[in-house]
Amino acid sequence: MRGLGIAATLVLVVGAHGVAAQNQETASSAGCGVGTILFEGQRGAVPQILAVTTNGSLGNQTFGISTGTLGCERDAVVRSPTEVRMLMISSLDNLATDVARGQGETLESLAALMAVEPDHRARFFASLQGDFGRIFPSENVTVDEVIVSINAVLAEDPVLQRYVIA
């Protein structure tokens, strides 16, 4: 069964590569990471899905954002809430751990993607940590619920409300 999944993935990758030869535009909605690099210049749903899946399954976006590698900009300003959502999809458990601790690589990456100014980061981390139970009320919380909760927490703080995710 596992071999069948690998074979199907290879068929998709080879097929996606053929599509790329026809149209060489970047699948920018995939964010940054190894998947984005592998499928760079390819257009269409299949390469974008494969790029996002690769980025998510390898968990490399957090590393890339933190180090400024893999096509990620370390101090980039988020141009779309999609990148915040993609980080959460690929690293929600890590984010929960970091929020509970009030520090960590995934939390730093979230702050960077949300363009939280360095002077506001300690307040941002402490605010999320203080409302951990509200942001992560159960093990089954969804990414969308976490985003809504983070927005609510940030909206209540006069300094942090500027970082509410649109």
* Average residue pLDDT: 76
Q: Calculate Rg over CA atoms.
A: 17 Å
User: Judging from the principal axes of the Cα atoms, what is the shape?
Assistant: globular
* Structural class computed from helices and strand pairing: mainly alpha
Beta-strand percent range: under 5%
Order of helices and strands: HHHHHHHHH
Into which percent range does the helicity of residues fall? 55-70%
Low-confidence stretches: 1-28
Provide the descriptors you would attach to this structure in a database record.
166 residues, mainly alpha, disordered N terminus
Summarize the structure.
The chain is mainly α and about 170 residues long. The protein contains 9 helices and no strands. It is about 65% helix and about 0% strand.
Structural overview:
The chain is mainly alpha-helical. The chain folds into 2 domains: 2-58, no CATH class; 81-163, no CATH class. Helices cover 63% and strands 0% of the residues. It contains 9 helices and no strands. The protein is globular and about 40 Å long.
